[in-house]
Amino acid sequence: MATLDTLKRTLLQKASETEVPSNQPLSDEQYSHAFDIFLKGAGWKTYQEFIIPQLSQLLDPLFHSRLRISILEVGPGPKSVLEHLPDSQKRKITKYAAFEPNKLFASRLEEWFRCTPFPSLEHTPEISRSRFSSGDFYHRTKSSLYDEKFDVIIFCHSMYGMKDKQATIQRAVNMLVQQPGGGLVVVFHRDSLRIQGMASYRTGFFPTGLVSVADSEDTLDCFAQFITGKKTQDGTLRALWRNKCRELGACDTANPGSLLFSAPDVMVAFTRHAPTGSEYSAPAMREQKMVKNRQACVRFPAITLQPTGIAGVQHCVTSALKGGTGLTVVGGGHSGHCLWFNIRSVDMGLFNKVHVVASEDIKVGSFIVAEAGCKTVDIIRKASEAGLTVPLGARPSVGAGLWLQGGIGHLSRLHGLACDSIVGAVVVSADAGKLFSVGYVPEQYRCPEAVQLDDSDLLWAIQGAGTNFGIVTSVTFKAYPAPAYTVRSWRLPFDDLFKARAKLREFDHLIARDLPRTCSADAYLFWDEDRLHIAVTMFETSTATSCVTLIALTRAYKILGPEKSIKTTDSIGVFDAEMYMSEMHGGHGGGKTSSFKRCLFLKDIGQDETANVLIKAIETRPTPLCYLHLLQGGGAIRDVPADATAFGCRDWDFACVITGVWPRDQDGTKEAVAAVRWVYDIAEILLPLSTGAYGADLGPDPRDAALAAKAFGPNLPRLARLKQRWDPRDILAYACPLPTPPKDPRLIILVTGESGAGKDFCADVWRSLFMKDDVAACVSSISEATKRQYATETGADLSRLLEDRAYKEQHREALTAFFQTQVKKRPRLPEEHFLRLVHSAKDAEVLLITGMRDKAPVAAFSHLVPDSRLVEVRVEASEEVRSARRGADKADIKPEDKNGTLDYAPSFNLRNDGEGELLARAFFSTHLQHLVDPDLQSLTEIIRQIPDFPNTDINFRHILGVAQSRGGLKLCTALLQSHYSGDWSQILSIVCVETGGFIFASALAVNVDVPLALIREKGKLPPPVVSVAKEVSHISGASSGKKAGVIRKGGKVVVVDDVLATGNTLCAVLRLLVKVGVEMTDISVIVVAEFPLHKGRELLCREGFGKVNVQSLLAFGGF
Ligand SMILES: Cc1cc2nc3c(=O)[nH]c(=O)nc-3n(C[C@H](O)[C@H](O)[C@H](O)COP(=O)(O)OP(=O)(O)OC[C@H]3O[C@@H](n4cnc5c(N)ncnc54)[C@H](O)[C@@H]3O)c2cc1C
């Protein structure tokens, strides 16, 4: 089955050969008939599986941020594609307009609107029966719609006939609203879309789109004319076109009598901020960059930039961040993802230097510093000149993508993967375009502007997943002495497939497994001269053949017979010794071929099930040139623990590269489409038999998703979090896909208190009570990590430290001292321990953490988990009870264990002197159960997010909007009332600050019947007032007059506000209250939403207000 683009090219070629005029436009009826073909059967799947979900997902944030949405659809056809959006989105559409030049469609569209598909429309949809056009034409067909502004403009299937696509899109972009968050122009098109210069905000790809066409004369005539956009009455040309359709189409087995064509689709979305190219300091390439990978070549990027220095790379990143667009990077250009539809690409070609830092001293070692535009051969050549080498891949022209994502080659069994030799790197970070140096980079190559980062995470991530976190400008490799290679090859033909399977098993079990790590044996399965072949190449790297090698060789001769060739060569010559270059199919290198690869990691390839799949794969190859390459693993690859580097997949015997190959002149034909499909089909069958997938070739193609889920072994969750940390705007979205990180628990309860107070006991009771309410909860002890390390270093018994109370008591003091020493060395250790616990809480909604000893932990840690609500429950008990529980004498309890020394207020206190669960259970019902109240979620959903307001990069949460939504204020007030942990009847007044506080406090005051104490800007309240200075102004509140003062000494007050962010306002309010004589312990604060990233609680503690109890209903990450 050929692609529609190949079909179009072929049909037009035929038309030009016959010289028959064919340039009239199709009639409205013909167009309508052809349009139907795309919406039926296989064609509808593109809508179902791609267009509708993509649209809905893309529009969701925009729809969520607005109360009313206006839509312009260009060429919608007989009805709007928006019909299929979820009801919640359709309800937001208040204005709809369309350009629909096909009169038949326009009438049907008007008819369709009579059934009110969008219930909130405020006007009759305006449907212009003219073409949407750019520039000059617009002046001639002026429609008033051009003067209007829209939130969303959609080209779902109308771009095909448009001549100047860029100008058309640009006009549409100019018609977008200019309010914060902007609007979107969304274009769906076949993957041949080429809109030069404009960078897309988001891109989606649907490579598996199909179109099924009935194989009848009328339908094929109509279809061929639609595809070419040319009408012809000429019978000969029509017949020629029909025949070509039959030749290029495949039989639609699901729909007999129809022909199937491949119709990959793309979505590109543009915003007003999209950069056009003129703003770059890096030189832009005028011509499309030709890269090695043929698929990448036809994914037309918006622009290719070729930075000449690091500042240029930084500029590419910062302008992508500013414009909200993405970037791809071109290294060696061998993957399909270095160029991507309407994404800007950064070509690292000018970063092409290799430096050798050689040392005779083995202890110091030698290093190779390679810039990111270097190819494998550049590095090997330069290293060889100094008698050194680096374990890279087998082909000379492959670039940085290889060593940043793994790198399997002939030296892997001896020295590990390429990424294992990376000891340092210089990186432009994707989060801010800053330059960092990580790990060891020789000083002279570090770049004076680079900040040395002592963050082992980034280096860890670069060692195997290095294309996802920034643009790497150079890496430092550990170098090894360059070996000489002896390369032996065997080639065995098979008529009997059973014998082939048996031979594969013998090769695996009797030859490969026993090889020393100085040798590696690769196998190739391919079909040649009408027979299946298994070929083997053995690469031996030692200078003198060892005894072990001799034994293995003798066995190889016995099993494989005499070798077909033997060659001794060096690090450069070994590139030519590759089997597929020299031996297979007469040498692939000689011919012009295109290929497509995916790679899975296998153990025991001789085992029946795996061997059968491998042999069957070759039997079912769609083109004669397809083959399987099995690269040997084990040795040094397996020595590295799976979690020591990001690469993760270590436990395999062979990396199986499934390689679909076809002659280059068959690109886009049914052979090429079938070869790619074959690769994915075989990968799907092998996936359950594999121990992992190689991330190097994986990208945003949806067919890669299942493979990407098996790449990186156990490291995916950590990588997902690092992606969020280092590329929060996802500008490198087109590299190997990483999952979104699992959500942190929505509620984290720190159960603190002195030993013997019953923390672990209470935490366990509460966990089971949450679980009983169907809320997934777990308990973790933060001291466990320290105990583990303590046990390793002192030889103490870990299980007894964890389980045996008496044993734990014996080690208590030593453990505390051990922890303190560790913290002295690594001051951020408590934060690291805390985050590790939170991140390992997998699917828990509530995490209870015990063993925390930090002061004011909510203030100190909440910014680390900004999307979670963090509360502290302090469990207390009398000294008698605690000493009894610890099995110690009261006199043994050290003074630091004494109660009552806290200088901050925990969220809750529990006096736990009693026996059994009674107290803990009662506490749960009063204070903890409602922290997971489903109404909190309802309140969250009411709060709109407005991106880029009031400034770019700010995702504004409209808390006051709660009062603007029906039922919002009532719900919020009820929650404020029930969540306050004190007794409303004891409250003298509710203190509030304008403006947000007034709204929520007023409604609450009505419910609880407590008077308000108003705080406003200085000068806005009549006397008597008191004032204090606030950060940039003064605020004033009611003074404590002896008579009718709203606030009095000795009275309890609750401060109610909409938001707690930096804490500046709250500090001023608290100062004001203290000034009028209110005791700090008589003040409580409750806010609707807290933004922990601003560290408001930390400021309160610093300013001496740590003893004030502060509660919040919701917590939001972001600013
Ligand atoms: C003919 C051939 C032979 C191969 N042989 C081997 C082999 O022997 N061993 C092996 O392990 N693999 C091999 N591969 C797979 C190869 O490692 C991957 O295809 C790799 O992604 C190619 O890297 P590249 O730089 O050449 O490609 P590119 O397409 O330029 O880059 C690949 C990816 O890396 C990203 N990237 C490139 N440079 C940077 C940078 N500086 N910073 C951040 N991201 C960057 C790109 O954006 C892209 O996502 C081979 C592939 C082919 C086609």
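qc> Residues 940 and 1114 are 7 Å apart (CA to CA).
qc> done
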